[in-house]
Specification:
The chain is of the alpha/beta class. The chain contains 16 helices and 17 strands. The strands form 3 sheets. Strands 1, 2, 3, 5, 7, 8, 9, 10, 11, 12, 13, 16 and 17 form a 13-stranded mixed β-sheet that branches.
Length: 455
């Protein structure tokens, strides 16, 4: 019996082993295996299609979207696409001759004032051309993406990584009008506007920012406005991760866009996991989060993660009470205002949330002053320098170097095996209001990354 005569099940197992060898994914090895003969190609088709096309990384550019369109139109491969991870293309566009003219302006026989005027004119012209190219590219990308969504019957997850803020060029009219969040907003808006035509309603819509809110470009709150058709399409969402950018002071009708987030969440009654973060501008965050805290009830919510939020304590208290069924709760960089204290919120969590299996809070402030945990702060350790050996074979394993950091008095965490309810009650008793203001010890956006309080 030769290799091609083996049963399909055995060949599929062989192909799966080639793809997922030692924890990594090697589709190239599977491609080589399929080139042996037509029989093996036919018998391993399903395994290959699943591995190669189940999750795709897509750039919002014409070449990348053309490739996605070819996959979507393929009768066997298009139906296998379940996840799309997008990233925005930074075209770096400059009009023809722009740099040459700029060099001549700086090196020519012009005085300082004339050079400044020429540079200003050239910069404006370059920005205007960039904006035109941006609008044309956005329109064509949207049309191409719409065609793809219409053909992918199994699509369930869309991932939109938040663009890293550091080093992004600023200067075009578009960037001036939309603040720093234009790239993530463009990607989000282009994708969501096409969802109304999707053949399959997505279950997960993620804006992935890895917990770094102040260094990432979020989605502008104004982009959350949705037509009834799009709201109908997102009604089946079960997981939503959303980083919102509050930097746009040019949008005048604030009373209108303050309710956009609440309207979006109201359209997702099946939501089970919600991760919500904000970029900067504490005052506007309070206005946007207030309608959510006061009105939204998500009956199936199980996992809640709130980051970099300023809100009224009473509103947060009532929001949590409407979601007693949550099993995991994480609160990070939270500013609580008003007469309802965070200690009262901890008391409610310790008494009425029997289904909690995980709780964490970090960097909580009460009316602009830091809250700290006197004795129960989170203890962490670092074993990066410890030998990578099997403890059963290393006689001196217990003496290996492990660096234990001092307790972080601004962070507490509890898991199911520790007894969540009783532990939260202990956290409440251990909570103290410090005299330190809530401003970060390290400037946001520095090499440390996010909004940081030093323990």
């Amino acid at each position: 019996m030769n290799l091609a005569d083996l049963p399909t099940e055995l060949l599929e197992l062989t192909g799966h082993h080639l793809i997922h060898h030692r924890g990594f994914k090697y589709v190239s090895d599977m491609l080589a295996f399929r080139l042996v003969c037509r029989a093996i190609t036919s018998k391993t088709h399903e395994t290959f299609a699943r591995a190669a096309f189940q999750s795709l990384i897509v750039e919002l550019s014409s070449p990348s979207l053309n490739r996605l369109k070819s996959i979507a139109e393929h009768p066997a491969f298009g139906v296998k696409v379940e996840q799309l991870k997008f990233y925005d293309e930074d075209s770096g566009y400059s009009p023809p001759g722009y740099l040459e003219f700029l060099v001549k302006a700086r090196s020519g026989d012009l005085d300082v004032e004339e050079q400044a005027r020429v540079e200003e004119f050239l910069n404006f012209a370059g920005a205007e051309q960039e904006d035109k190219a941006f609008l044309q590219r956005t329109a064509s990308d949207g049309i191409m993406l719409l065609v793809c969504f219409q053909r992918m019957r199994s699509l369930r997850k869309i991932d939109i990584p938040a663009i890293w803020r550091s080093g992004r060029p600023q200067g075009s009219v578009r960037r001036h009008l939309t603040g720093n969040g234009e790239s993530t907003t463009r990607t989000y808006s282009t994708i969501v506007s096409c969802l109304a035509y999707a053949q399959q309603r997505p279950k997960e819509l993620l804006t992935d920012w890895d917990g770094c809110t102040t260094c990432s470009e979020g989605v502008a709150v104004q982009a959350l406005y949705m037509t009834p058709e799009i709201k109908l399409c997102i009604a089946g969402l079960q997981r939503l991760e959303l980083l919102l950018d509050m930097s746009d002071e040019h949008f005048k009708n604030q009373t209108l866009w303050h309710s956009y987030l609440a309207a979006l969440l109201c359209a997702t009654p099946e939501l089970r996991k919600l991760k919500l973060g904000f970029c900067r501008d504490w005052e506007d965050i309070a206005h946007v989060f207030a309608p959510v805290a006061n009105t939204i009830h998500l009956p199936q919510l199980q996992d809640l993660d709130l980051q970099h939020i300023r809100c009224d304590g009473a509103a947060l208290y009532s929001f949590l009470l409407r979601h007693r069924g949550i099993t995991r709760l994480s609160l990070t960089t939270l500013q609580v205002t008003g007469s309802t204290s965070f200690a009262q919120i901890l008391g409610a969590l310790g008494d009425g949330f029997e289904q909690l299996t995980f709780f964490e809070c970090s960097q909580i402030a009460q009316n602009d002053f830091r809250l700290e945990f006197e004795t129960l702060g989170l203890v962490t350790w670092n074993d990066v320098w410890a030998p990578r050996t099997d403890p059963r074979a290393d006689k001196d394993f217990l003496n290996s170097f492990v660096s234990v950091r001092k307790p972080d008095r601004y962070t507490v965490r509890v898991e199911q095996w520790e007894g969540v309810q009783s532990r939260i009650k202990s956290f409440r008793e251990d909570l103290r209001l410090s005299s330190k203001p809530c401003e970060p010890d390290i400037p946001p956006g520095s090499f440390q990354g996010d909004y940081v309080w030093l323990p």
